[in-house]
Amino acid sequence: MALPLSILLILTGTTGIHSITTAGKVSVKAGASISIPCLYSSQYRDHVKYLCEGYYWSSCSYATKTNQPQSSEKFSISDDKKQNIFTVTIKHLTDRNTYYWCAVEIDGGSDVRQYFQLFVISGEPRVKVAHQEVTGYIGENITINCQFTDPGKLKWCRLGMTCVTEKSGLLDGTNVSIKSDSDVFKVTMSGLRPETAGWYWCVKGDFQMPVHLTVTEKPNATVAPVPTDGKVTTVKDEQNSASFDPMSLVIPLSLLILAVAVALVLWFILRCKKAKSGSVVPKEEISRAESDTDVTYSSLVISTQQKGKGGEAKEDDVTYSTLTFPHQRST
After folding, report:
1. DSSP single-letter state for residue 304
2. Which residues contact 174 (CB under 8 A, 6 or more apart)?
């Protein structure tokens, strides 16, 4: 059985070393990831920071360091020297990943360190939030829901500062109100300022859950950035272009194709009629066209007499036709 923390600190010789502030107990679901902030004194700003894994300080092993490449898929570390906070992230947690130390290297002396414990369970964590990273906007409010399963006093604390334990209070110049329900308490921070950004704790009984708040200007989402071709595209235009349905062109294209087909059929019929009517030309037309002359027709009737049976004369009419082609008229 693990020794109580106070006895552990006595045995490892760490009593009185509080130059680092971090979480005490954090409950995490197996397989999940967790980020733990470690606040250090400003005198250690340029020192190497690291995470050490193990129950005893004397036998713990390096997990990740700020002066080494971040090559591990399980551990990572980052150092915010403006806030004097380095953050360690542990992924794919199992029940073996429970005991850790936030530490700062001291050249020629004992390293500064602070112990924290992870309770990795298969069920719901003792205290949890939907997201460890939340974003608020300057001048507005933000609400963080802290869910819990165990009884105990609830708090909303800022890392390295005091806590709000009542229904309302002031935390580092920001108004805080807390509403508690059967299994969740809602923390609302009003009138956010840039200075409000930082690490906070949801606290319920002996367990904490770190939450990092980023405070920024509210973006203007009405107009998209101007493209290089000079055209301004609004969000509404992008939505309209994204919702364009190609099937809306089927009917207009069908009507256009039908009209072209009808026009081609009519054109073909008219062409055939014209060709047929022009194929039969009167001979007079051909002669006139070829000779470019006038044609004169005349008729001559010659009467002849023949004797009939009674000696009477009988006339037969004979008609002669002649064609006269005058000389071609000069043009």
Report:
1. E
2. 189, 190, 191, 192, 193, 196
Q: Give the DSSP letter string of 102-165.
A: EEE--TTSPPEEEEEEEEEESS--SEE-S-SEEEEETTS-EEEEEEESS-S-EEEEETTS-EE-
Q: How far apart are CA 255 and CA 183, in angstroms?
A: 65
Comparing CA positions, the residue from 219, 213, 202 lying closest to residue 83 is: 213
- Tell me how far apart the alpha carbons of residues 112 and 131 are, in angstroms, rounded to a whole number: 30
Q: Are 240 and 196 in contact (CB under 8 A)?
A: no
Tokens 């051909």 label which residue?
286
Question: What's the whole-number average pLDDT of the chain?
Answer: 79
Are 102 and 51 in contact by the 8 Å Cβ rule? The answer is: yes
Tokens 């400003």 identify what position? Answer: 42
Give the Å distances, CA to CA, from 135 to 56, 196, 199, 209, 212. Answer: 37, 11, 12, 17, 8
**For 310-319, how does the pLDDT look when each residue is reduced to its tens digit (9 = 90+)?**
555 455 555 5
* Inter-residue contact 183 to 237 (CB < 8 Å): no
DSSP labels for 15-28? TT--SEE--SEEEE
Q: Provide the 3-class DSSP secondary structure of residue 29.
A: strand
Tell if the pTM clears 0.85, that is, is over it: no
pLDDT digits (tens, 9 = 90+) for 81-91: 999 999 999 99
H-helix segments, 183-249: 235-242
**Per-residue model confidence (pLDDT) at position 70:** 80
Alpha-carbon gap, residue 97 to 125, rounded angstroms: 15
> CB atoms < 10 A from the CB of 300, how many?
9
Paired tokens of 259: 């009209």
Tell me: the pLDDT tens digits for 74-111?
999 999 999 999 999 999 999 888 999 999 999 989 99
